[in-house]
Amino acid sequence: MTITRRAAMGAALALPAANLVRAARAAEPVAIDLFFPVPVQGMLANEMQTLIERFNGQQPEVRVTAAYTGSYDDTNLKTRAAIKAGRPPAAVIMSANFVREYVINDEVDAFDDLIGQDGKTPSEYMDAFWPALRPNAVIDGRVYGIPFQNSTPLLYYGVDAFRDAGLDPDHPPATWAEWVDAAVKLTRPNGQRWGLMFPGTYDYCGWITSGLVMSNGGQYFNHDYGGEVFYDAPSALGALSLLDLMVNKHKAIPPGVSDANACTGAFFAGRTGMMVLSTGSLSFVRSNMKSPYRVAFMPRNLRNAAPIGGGSLILPKGNTPERRQAAWKLVNWLTSPEISGEWSRFTGYFAPRKAAYDLPDMKAYVQQYPDAKVALDQLQYAVPWFDTYSTVAVRKAMEDQVQALLSAKTTPAEAAAAAQKGADALLRPYVERTALKLPA
Amino acid sequence: MRAERRLLATVAIGAAAIAWALPFAWMAVASLRPGVPPDIASLTPPGPFGLGNYALAWRSGSFPLWYLNTLLMCGGILAVQLVTITAAGYAFARLRFAGRETLFALFMLQILLIPALLIVPNLATLVRLHLYDRLLGIMAPYFASGFGVFLMRQTFRAIPRDYEEAAMLDGARIPALIRHVLAPLARPGLVAFAIISVTAHWNEFLWPLMAVVSPSRQVLTVGLASFTAGAEAGSAWGMVAAGTFLVAGPLLILFLLFQRRFVSSFMFSGIK
C-alpha cells in the first residue's frame, strides 16, 4: 500500500519535472565549436573571439566556442584528427584549397540541403560571391566551402625607391617587360637594394608561381578535376624562365629562399624596391611602413591574372542535424555582408560576398585606402587556387624545383620537367581510380 | 702545453656560450624596441626603447589563465610520472620476474616513437575516456615515461644494496623501502628527470593544440602562437620576442635560481 502510494506520488512529481527538463532543454542553446586558424599577423585571434562573443550574445539558440587551431596546416591536421577520433568540430575555417581533399576523402558535408531550405539553389547562392571563388568552393556540382576570408597576390612598391631609380611611381610596371626593366633599375649592388622580393617558402612559393603561370596565359592545374597539373606546359616554362632571368641573370631578386618576414623587413627598410605579397598583408604593411608605398596588379605577360588564396568555412562529416543547423546559422552570420566587410577592414582580406562592398562603411574604406581599391579591382582577374588530389605534396613537387631554381641549382627546362614528373607520380593513384577507370 | 690546451678549451667553450646566448641577447633587445623598426636584426640599435611590447603582448592574450593551465599540466604530469617511474625503475632494477628484459626493451621502444605519430590513436582514446578537451587529456599520454624508467633504473642500480638490506632487516616492506630509503638517495636522478620533463611539456605545442578545444583550457605555447604566428604577412618581431619571454620567463628564472643544484644533478645522473 505504502509502496504504491509512494510510487504514485513519485510519478505525479516526476511527470511535471520531466516536462520541465524537456522545456529547459529546448530553450538551452545548441553548443557547437568552430576551429579557426590565424594566417596573418596581428590580434586576429582576439578579434575572432570578440566576433564570436557578439554572435553568442545576439541570439539564444546557438552557443559557439571558437578554438584557435594554429596555422592553416595545423588546423587541417587538428580537424582530420578530430574527425578520425569521432569528435568532428561543427565548422572549420579551412584553407580553401584543402576543401577538395576533404571531398575526395568523404570527410565533409555539402551545404546544398541547408541552402535549399532557405529557398535558394546552390547556384543562386554562390552568385552572391566573387566568381573566381567558385571552383574552390563548388566541387562536383555541390557546395562544400563558403568563402570567408580571401586574398590575391599584389605588387607592393616603394615610392622613394621608384623616384630614386628614375621610375615613375604613377606608372607601376604592368607587363613582364616593364617589370624586369623596373627590377633591374631598382637594384643597387651588394644587396643595398634589391629590385624585387617575394616569399619563396612553401605555400607562398606555389601560390606566386601559379600566379606567374596564369599571367602567362596558363591554367597551371585542371580547375575542374583534381588529377592533372600542367607544370611542363609552355606557360609554366615561361614563368620559370622569368624567375631565372630576374634572379640568376640580372641579380635583381636575392638568391635563395626568402620568407614573408624577410620581404616585409626589407620593404620597410627600403632594401627592396618591390615585393609580391598577399592582399591579406595590407593592414600589416599599412600600419608599419613609414615611407610612402603603393600597390599594383601583378604584371602580365599574356593576360592579367592573380590566384585566389584564403579560407572557407566547411562542415566536417559526422555532426548531428541539430549541430549542422546551428553551424549553418553561424556560417550565414560570419559571411553576411556586414560581418565579412568588418573582418575585411580589420585584416586586409577582401570580403568574398560582393554585397559587402555596397555598404556605406565599405565604400568609405575603399575610398580612404587606395591600396584596398587596387586589391578589389584586381579581383576581376582572379583565378582559382591550386587544389588537386594530395594538394600539398603535388604543390611541393613544383615548389622544390622553384626553390632550386632560385638557388641556381637547376634550369627552367629541367625544373619544369622534374616538377611534372614528380606531380604525375603523386597523382597516379587518384588518376587510376578516376579518369583511367574505364568500363570493362 | 697544458696551459695552452686549457686556454684553447676555454676559448672554444666561450665561443659556444656566445653562440648560444646571441639569440637570447637579440630577443631581449628586440623585445624592448617599439613598432617594427627597419633594422630589427641589429644587436646594438640606437633606441628608443620601452616596455610597450610586453604590455602589448600581455594584453593580446590571457596570460594568467595560460600560466595556470601550463602549471597544472606540467605539475600534474610530473607528479604522476615521479610515482610511475620510481616504481617501474625499482622493478626493473631490483625485482626478478620472467620476461623482465623483454619488457624493459619494450619500454625503451617508447623513446624511439615520435609522439606526432600517435596523435590520432591517442585522440580516439581520449574521446572514449571522456578526456577530450580536458587538461587531464593533455597529461594522460605522458603519465608513463620510458626515458624516466630507464633513468631511475640506472640510478637505483648505482645505489649499493647494503642500504636496502639494512632497511629490510628492520622490517621495511618494498613501498616503505622505496619511499624512505631509495627515493631520497635517488633524488639527483629525480631532479634531473623533473627538469627534462617540465621543460619538454612547458614547450610542447602540437599535442596541447590537438587535445584541447576550449580557449579556457589553452596552454602558453598555443596561446603565444595565437597572436604571433603569421605566415602571410610579416611579424611584429618586438611583440613576438616579448611574448616569447613571457612564456619562457618562468623557466629561465627557475633555472637561474637553482642553477647549481641542476648542474650537480645532471653531473650525478650522467646526463649531459
Polypeptide structure, described:
The complex is a heterodimer of chains A (440) and B (272). Helix content of chain A is 49%, strand content 15%. Chain A is an alpha/beta fold. Chain A folds into 2 domains: 26-150 and 309-368, D-Maltodextrin-Binding Protein, domain 2; 153-307 and 386-433, D-Maltodextrin-Binding Protein, domain 2. In chain A, the strands form 4 sheets. In chain A, strands 1, 2, 3, 4, 7 and 13 form a 6-stranded mixed β-sheet that branches. In chain A, helix 11 (234-249) runs antiparallel to helix 19 (412-433) and helix 16 (360-368) packs across helix 17 (370-378). The radius of gyration of chain A is 25 Å and the shape is globular. By secondary structure, chain B is mainly alpha-helical. The radius of gyration of chain B is 23 Å and the shape is globular. The interface between A and B is large, with 55 and 38 residues.
Largest sheet of chain B: none
Estimated helix fraction of chain A: 40-55%
So what's the CATH class of the largest domain in chain A? Alpha Beta
Task: Give Rg of chain B in angstroms.
Answer: 23 Å
Oligomer: heterodimer
Distance from first to last alpha carbon of chain A: 77 Å
Shape of chain B: globular
CATH superfamily of the largest domain in chain B: MetI-like
Summed up, the domain count of chain A is 2
Domains of chain B, number: 2
Count helical runs of chain A.
19
Structural class computed from helices and strand pairing of chain A: alpha/beta
Rg of chain A, Cα atoms, Å? 25 Å
How much strand content do the residues of chain A show?
5-15%
Secondary structure: number of strands of chain B: 0
- Largest inter-chain contact set: A-B, 55 and 38 residues
Say what the CATH topology of the largest domain in chain A is.
D-Maltodextrin-Binding Protein, domain 2
Terminal Cα span of chain B: 28 Å
Individual helix count of chain B:
14
**Which percent bin holds the helix content of chain B?**
over 70%
Q: Low-confidence parts of chain B lasting 5 or more residues at pLDDT below 50?
A: none
